[in-house]
Structures are given as C-alpha cells and as structure tokens.
Amino acid sequence: MTALAVARLESRRLRVRPLGWVLAALTLAWLAWNFTLLLGSFLSTQVQRAALPDGPGFTDLVAVPLLAQLAQLAFVVVPLLGMSMLAGERRNGTLPLLFAAGLSPSRIVLGKYLALVGWLALWLLLTLAMPLALAGSTDLDFGKLAAATLGLALMLATLAAITLACSSFAPHPAIAAAVALVIGLALWSVNLGAQMAGLNGGVINWIAMSSHLQPMLRGLVSSADVLWFVLAAALALALAIRRLAGEKERG
Length: 251
Prior knowledge:
mainly alpha; 251 residues; 80% helix
C-alpha cells in the first residue's frame, strides 16, 4: 500500500465522519455572512472612494479580509479535523494493523497528511468562490488575490502538519487538538511582545507565522516567507514520522 492509497482511505473516512461536514457547513456559513457584510460596507462607501485615485478596492476591502477571517478559523478547524488521524488510530488499536500491513511510518504520515490537505484545499476553494463570483462585475486584483491565496494555502498546510505531529504524540485526540491549537496560536503571536517593544526584524519576529503570512495578504510574496512555511511543515512531518517509527520499533 502506497501513501496515495492511505490518502484515499483517509479521505473516505473524512467524507463519512459528520465532524468534517459540520465544520465545513458552519465555517462556510460564517464566511458567507461576513462576505455579505464586507460587500455591503464596500458598496456603501464606493462613492467616497471613487474620489481617491489610489484608494483600496474590492480586493483590499472584501476578498483579502475574507481570507484573513478564514485564517483565524483555521487555528480551530485544522486541529479538530486532524486530531484523530493518528491519535485515534492508536486509541482504537488500529495503528499496529497499519504496521502489520507493511506500511512504513513515512507512508502513513504522508498519506494522512495528503488527505487532510486535500480537504483544507477544498475548504479554501469554496471560500475563494465567493469573491471570484463577482470577478466580472468588480475590479478584482488577481495578482494580489493569488498572493493571499498562496499564503493561506501554505498556512493551512503548515497547520495540518503541526496537527499530525501532535496527533502522533498525544494519547487522545482531544489532547492532540488542544496542543495543536496552542502551538499554532503561539507561532502566530510569538513576536507580539517584540512588536510592542518596537523590535522588528529579529529572530523572534522571524519565528512568528504572522510575519510571513501578512506580507502575502498584502500581495507581497518572497522566497524567504515561502521557505519558512515549507520548513515548518517539513519539521512537523519529520517529527510525526520519527514518533511512529519509534512506536513501530517498540512493537
């Protein structure tokens, strides 16, 4: 069995579990409601902004803030969705069965990671469909929207990797979700104290996830920011694989 086979199996599990559908319905309903509020505010001030030659447009006032709200929801949604992927297997006693089937720890982790990322990608695409539905009647900045989408995709992939790592260590899915939530929020706000002290550009600022996502939400994409997300996700996945490898050796 390959990692893709594990991903297909986990995707089927996500489809039959009510939690994923409930999370999708609630979050998309919340985002749709906020989209209408953002759009209403944009339309009510359209006349005043018309006098500004370089004023913010639909992308800055509606599309990007909508994606920023999705980023806030992701800190809760991703841990809840992925908390049982490994901790649940261990708690139900099915993890040894995966090892007995000849699956290596790397295939197990990567397969479940691909399934989780696939669900999150669909969640992101459904959110993007809201501002894109008005692309024909608004002046949508596709370049800035693409940069913001890339940042959100990298953030979701990183949070998914962190959740899997927590799930590989935790004895219970609820503990995995709580730890993943704390780690995600800590990575987001670790530089808050430094910013309040007027310190920018230091190591603490570089560690913070917000320092790398916010430029992308403004339409600025740099290789250093992309590399941070790639390294963070790779480190989390490596920890999960190492944890499962040690568990397999202990039998």
